[in-house]
Amino acid sequence: MSALLVPRVARILDRRDETHDTMTFGLRFREDGEHRAFTFRPGQFLELSVFGVGEAPFCLASSPTRPERIEVTVRRCGQVTDALHTLGPGDEVGLRGPCGNGFDVESVAGKDLLFVAGGIGLPPLRGLIWNVLDRREEFGRVTILYGSRTPSDLVYKEELRAWGDAEGVELRTTVDRGEPGWEGNVGMVPVLFDQVELRPGSTTAFVCGPPIMIKFVVQDLLMRGFGEDRVMSTLERMMQCGVGKCNHCCVGHRYLCRDGPVFSYAQIKEMWE
137-152: per-residue pLDDT in tens? Predict the structure, then answer.
């Protein structure tokens, strides 16, 4: 419980620009024993604090299969993220967590997997994708559909190429608006569904992105025969405490920080009824 309540000090190993306003940070706990003991599920999140500025929740963008480092991808959108973007290798931050439930990887072993992400919604799925690819023989077909506003806004550009080249993986990308030199798809993410073979009866879908994108993607998946319990997504609200005490993320009878942030569409629909 102390790991959820008291920040532990971590050092920034490196940072990498993803877009003009988004950066990925590699982190490692200052104490080696703490780092070796740190375990998590894809889809869980951390409460990250910039000392003297504040604390905010960020999804774990790395995979448990690669424990040498912790990674978070951060878009500049407020006081804490602005301060974090000024830090670099050797600087220290505080970490609480992991928080939340995460994706149940074992429950989809042997199944086909469909990942659908929009914009900055890819980081919560990135750890799950690498987890699956690092254990490739345990899963069926893998399809990744990803869209962003423009080609410049695509995150993990090098990894997208690596995923597209991986055996048994089908990758499709699209953008809302093309740029000079862009020869790929133009349109919202659902336009990609007609380019791939979907087998709803044997596939679990993982969806993450802006709320409006999730709404239309889920509607499309349901019309194509996916069951409500086979469509998984993440919900976001200000998960300030991370342990279900502050009530900021309460929706119905659930706390997104404790009972989520991962839910099936069946659970999401029940929460809003």
Answer: 999 999 999 999 999 9
